[in-house]
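Priority: medium. Attachment 1 of 2:
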């Protein structure tokens, strides 16, 4: 598998939100030095635990301090934007950083009802039409010409649910699969259907599958699970409070009261992630490749300890290179 990073600019308790952005920039520089294929950033609106709401702006900052690694969005949430505006943003990125820009696209409507209302969510599902419209704008085939025009083609990727994978197959686009669907025993059949129904498109001759999940590596299994605890805790808290919080340190987390429900959710999150020693993670990745036939792993790992996260990135790269 090829190996890439999806960085969500996670904020940390006791630190300003801006640190989440500068940490993302620093991590991208390190990922390029380690030989990662891509570095993607996310779009989340009004979420306390995530600093990035504008992938194009963050990618411009990262592009200015890197030279080779591909940069992209994981993803731009197309229901919140007009295709022409997205095309202009990414054409500008491609003009500034030729041959390095990817455009991952999703259709999340927002984390909470107030956020969806603030984004003027009208609940119409025009995702497939908007993808086609965006492709036309990027290629210069629409009724109006998005600028700046530049050489080369910006690859598009679909962050997919079950229906999203069907759309990706019809439009001939690579697909990104992540989240709870990965734990579903039917995921293999879903991807088989995507590959079987894939219609080649300009620049994309064959189906392509990226799998996105947390992958944390440390000296021991216990140490890796401890690093993965802050993200699992934040997810459990979001289910309880409706708000996705900044990452807390494992020490602070263990000093708080855990409900039985939170304990079960944390255990489930840790079990669904890939977290362990070199040997454990290598075995888990081999099983993942066998189960999904993935062409690429998009590691969405985050943890409170930034130095431990960078070391995990290094160890993960070593495993995939081996």
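Attachment 2 of 2:
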């Amino acid at each position: 598998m090829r190996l890439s990073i999806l960085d969500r600019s996670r904020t940390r308790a006791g630190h300003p939100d801006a640190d989440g952005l500068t940490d993302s920039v620093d991590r991208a520089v390190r990922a390029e030095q380690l030989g990662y294929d891509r570095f993607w950033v996310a779009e989340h609106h009004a979420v306390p635990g995530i600093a990035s709401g504008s992938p194009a702006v963050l990618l411009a900052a990262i592009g200015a301090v890197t030279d080779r690694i591909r940069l992209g969005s994981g993803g731009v949430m197309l229901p919140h934007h007009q295709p022409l505006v997205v095309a202009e943003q990414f054409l500008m990125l491609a003009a500034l950083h030729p041959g390095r820009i990817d455009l991952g696209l999703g259709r999340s409507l927002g984390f909470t009802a107030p956020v969806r209302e603030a984004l003027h969510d009208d609940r119409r599902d025009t995702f497939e039409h908007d993808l086609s419209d965006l492709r036309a704008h990027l290629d210069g085939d629409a009724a109006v010409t998005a600028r700046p025009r530049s050489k080369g083609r910006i690859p598009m990727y679909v962050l997919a649910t079950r229906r999203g994978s069907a759309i990706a197959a019809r439009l001939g686009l690579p697909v990104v699969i992540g989240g709870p669907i990965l734990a579903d025993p039917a995921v293999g059949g879903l991807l088989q259907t995507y590959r079987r129904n894939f219609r080649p498109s300009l620049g994309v001759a064959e189906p392509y599958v990226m799998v996105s999940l947390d992958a944390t590596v440390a000296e021991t299994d216990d140490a890796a699970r401890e690093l993965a605890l802050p993200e699992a805790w934040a997810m459990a808290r979001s289910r309880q409070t409706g708000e996705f919080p900044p990452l807390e340190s494992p020490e602070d987390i263990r000093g708080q009261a855990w409900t039985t429900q939170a304990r079960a959710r944390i255990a489930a999150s840790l079990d669904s992630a890939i977290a362990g020693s070199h040997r454990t993670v290598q075995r888990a990745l081999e099983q993942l490749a066998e189960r999904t036939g993935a062409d690429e792993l998009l590691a969405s790992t985050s943890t409170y300890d930034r130095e431990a996260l960078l070391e995990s990135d290094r160890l993960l790269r070593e495993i995939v290179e081996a």
